[in-house]
Design a protein that fits this description.
6 helices; alpha+beta; 6-stranded mixed beta sheet; 4-stranded antiparallel beta sheet
Length: about 260
């Protein structure tokens, strides 16, 4: 009986110790226990950096893919697009009655950058939650968010300016620049779309096979240019083979408006 009582006491003590350890691990993430110097405050930035980067990547990828599928625009306004396979795809060249040529809509790369900027900022304002990194004895705060979108040939660079301050008493650490690079050939495919639209506007057609072969030979990138003809329009679908990867190819597609026969 005595031994059984000792075992029970040890078991209870073991449970209490385990509970204290678990409680400590929980509290450790809620209470700042570092010293009051800039170096220690800087150690609090990695999870904040990761959180902001994740928000940038998630929103950026979503809107880049959407802008490619919809022909360079995130919006589909009446008379400017055609519904095809459940997607609103924009016209980049409008029909000229009785002519093979078309009227170039004039999509510019800066327009794509601006629309991405606005849409991503709206997402980030909902996604980024700096308050979750507050701890007892530590204050974490942020101010106004700004974003620059730079579309290069084979990547889209998102540069967020978000002043984040971590402070304890009179000591504070600051960081305001957060940047991610997303490997999507949006700029490259935009340039190809522009070539095609310019040719359609001037000549009313383009030889897609010749174009894709020449572009592949010149750049070393395996261009794929498809032209479908869902009556009465032309649908161009552009991609670089296996980019970003073989399971997730990025496409840029758009309509050229034509008139019924």
């Amino acid at each position: 009986m005595k031994k059984r009582g000792q075992v029970t006491v040890f078991a209870i003590v073991g449970v209490i110790i385990a509970a204290v350890i678990v409680l400590f691990l929980v509290i450790r993430n809620q209470v700042y226990i570092g010293g009051t110097n800039i170096e220690n405050l800087e150690k609090e930035f990695p999870p904040i950096q990761s959180h902001i980067d994740d928000c940038l990547e998630e929103s950026g990828e979503k809107h880049i893919n959407l802008i490619g599928k919809q022909g360079g625009y995130l919006t589909t306004n009446p008379g400017t697009f055609r519904q095809y396979n459940g997607i609103g795809i924009n016209y980049l060249c409008y029909n000229l009655e009785g002519k093979p040529e078309c009227s170039n809509r004039g999509l510019r790369l800066v327009d794509i950058e601006n629309s991405l900027q606005k849409a991503i900022i709206q997402d980030l304002e909902k996604c980024i939650n700096i308050n979750q990194f507050d701890k007892i004895n530590l204050d974490v705060s942020s101010s106004k968010l700004n974003l620059d979108v730079d579309i290069a040939e084979d990547k889209v660079i998102l540069k967020a300016n978000l002043p984040v301050k971590i402070s304890k008493g009179d000591v504070e650490a600051k960081r305001d620049k957060f940047e991610v690079e997303l490997n999507y050939p949006l700029g490259r495919l935009y340039n190809s779309a522009k070539d095609i639209v310019d040719s359609e506007a001037l000549h009313g057609n383009i030889d897609t096979l010749t174009y894709s072969v020449l572009k592949t030979r010149i750049t070393g990138k395996p261009y794929i240019v498809q032209k479908l003809q869902p009556y009465p329009d032309k649908l161009y679908i552009l991609k670089i083979k296996d980019i970003p990867n073989d399971k997730n190819e990025f496409i840029f597609q758009f309509f050229i408006q034509d008139e019924p026969l």
